[in-house]
Amino acid sequence: MTTGFPGRELRLEGSTRPLAALYSRNAKAVIARGLLATRSSNGLVLVSGFFEPVLYLLSMGIGLGALVGELDGPDGRPISYAAYIAPALLAVSAMNGAVYDSTWNVFFKMNFAKLYQGMLYTSLGPLDVAIGEIFLALLRGALYATGFTTVMALMGLLTTPVALLMIPVSVVIAFGFASFGMAITSFMKTFQQMEWVNFVMLPMFLFSATFYPLSVYPQGIQWFIQALPLWHGVELLRQISVASFGPATLIHLGYFVIMIAVGMLLTTLRLRKLFLK
Amino acid sequence: MISAQRLSKHYGDFRAVDGISFDVPAGEAFGLLGPNGAGKSTTMRMIGGVSQRTSGQLTIMGLDPEEHGPEVRAHLGVVPQQDNLDEELRVRDNLIVYGRYFGLPMSYLGPKADELLEFAQLTDKASAKVDALSGGMKRRLTIARSLINEPRILLLDEPTTGLDPQARHILWDRLFRLKEAGVTLILTTHYMDEAEQLCDRLVVVDKGQIMAEGSPAQLIRDHSTREVLELRFGSERNTTVAAELQGIGERLEPLPDRVLIYARDGEAALEEVSARGLKPLTSLVRRSSLEDVFLRLTGRSLVD
Q1: Which residue in B83, B97, B102 has the most chain A C-beta atoms within 10 A of its own C-beta, making it the best mutation to test that interface?
Q2: Has residue A22 been placed in a domain?
Q3: SS3 (DSSP) at A176
Q4: CB B67 to CB A20 under 8 A?
Q5: Cβ separation of B85 and A5 shorter than 8 Å?
Q6: What domains, with CATH codes, occur in chain B?
Q7: Is residue A41 part of a domain?
Q8: Tens digits of per-residue pLDDT, B24-83?
Q9: CA nearest A17 in B: which residue?
Q10: What is the nearest CA distance from A110 to chain B, expressed in angstroms?
């Protein structure tokens, strides 16, 4: 060993930087670790996350689409059923991926793999870990969105280059869900409680105007659905897919900006509860 | 280097750590000795700044680890009770990636990782998967990993639990070398021999409180006799025969499986036992150990 400090006391200065207790500006090390771990593990998990929405699109879009025929698109012009549900499925996939990564994945790495336990005994603070994990979740989401949009193009569902904006915007949607998901995970202590996450997500997936227009519901239920994040994601991507923008577009986007801000604030406030007990 | 004043950690009504105070100067090997659940690991976690104390003062290298966790931990190496190696990474990558968490550059980490693999006798396992390693190898890798940032303070939580004797001796040798290099060691253990081998000074902890403090030799001197006579009369008779042994040695400790007689001269005590016409199945004279100190202080043995 080359180490040697014969019995000298060391006194540290102590930084006065804000968040010095929680953050060491080194989230990139967490990201580098995630990329290395993904490279050395089998890519099966990655692939399954890509295929899920594609399978929905094929079965529902082509199968059900044959029965349904055409619907009115966001701009009033008729579009095929597949073109109607494809942006919605992209929003759902952004939600599912982000929520899975920020809840189950974080919960598992925290309580079972003890990965964070090791990380947090280094210079890393909990905010470094949170930012790193969220970034990785978004990177994965961006990959899926690119893949799914490619499939849409191959199926002839893209009619305008503007539709490519769905890729970055679905990352914004994923960010909203991931930042909130991590905050929620800080309240979870058991697997049973984690099941509640699925219990909320499945109905949100089925009822957020994913497969049919919101107008089928009575007014009260419409308001309720409109308060939920997934509906805003579905509408936003659907509008982008046909390049039909209006004041509502800004409202949908604004919803996610606020969701990200509140989610990150809550996550930061709950970091000690999440990582330090 | 470390100063704790009336340090406490409560979980609801449970007092895991209940007002302990100690100071550790630079370069010392300091031990926390106690049974499972005594509060040793919780104390370690508070030193690392990953557990928030309920009350009391704690400074590490002049800083509060709760307020300056990342800065304090930059000079800390931690070997947790359970290995938490990154199972998704290979052996050498475990060291490199861990070093990156400290923000260390690759130009430093490459040679350092190789040096540590050498130190841990894992050079030929560099590109092996972690789950292919034996328990002793994983432990050595965990210790190697804790040294990647050349820490001033090394926290070792039950470093040799679950290892075979040979692996333990290799580890002790490695820890000795670190101590010689001036690293401050904080060690928890429930093994007496480990504490006696490695610690300059230790505290005996039970139920979150410090029962005694001193060097191993000093603790034995203060709380036990020089020698101990262990007698076994068979599990039925150990307690009943205790009455007939009264007055031999300085103190008598009847346990379910054996009777301990604390005496300055164990052989003389054994002769006296024979003189009273008692014939134990086995007898053993040995020197007092920290186990006896612990038994004396808490009325319980260390390993349940």
Answers
A1: B97
A2: no
A3: helix
A4: yes
A5: no
A6: 2-213 (3.40.50.300), 225-287 (3.30.70.920)
A7: yes
A8: 999 999 999 888 888 998 999 999 888 889 999 999 999 999 889 899 999 999 999 888
A9: B68
A10: 11
pLDDT in tens, B260-270: 999 999 999 99
Is B73's CB within 8 Å of A272's CB? Answer: no
What does each C-alpha distance from A205 to A72, A88, A209, A221, B26 come to in angstroms? 21, 9, 9, 15, 59
For residue A123, which residues of chain B lie inside 8 Å, CB to CB?
70-71, 73-74, 101-103, 149
Residue A176 CB: number of other CB atoms within 10 A? 25
Q: Measured between alpha carbons, how far is B304 from B299 in angstroms, rounded to an integer?
A: 12
ipTM above 0.90, yes or no: no
Residue A144 is part of which domain span?
27-202+216-275
What is residue B283's three-state secondary structure? strand
Task: Count contacts between A and B (CB, < 8 Å).
Answer: 141
Query: pLDDT below 70 — which residues of chain B?
Result: 300-304
| Facing B102 at nearest CB: one of A3, A9, A123 | A123
Total domains, chain A: 1
Q: How many CB atoms lie within 10 A of CB A228?
A: 16
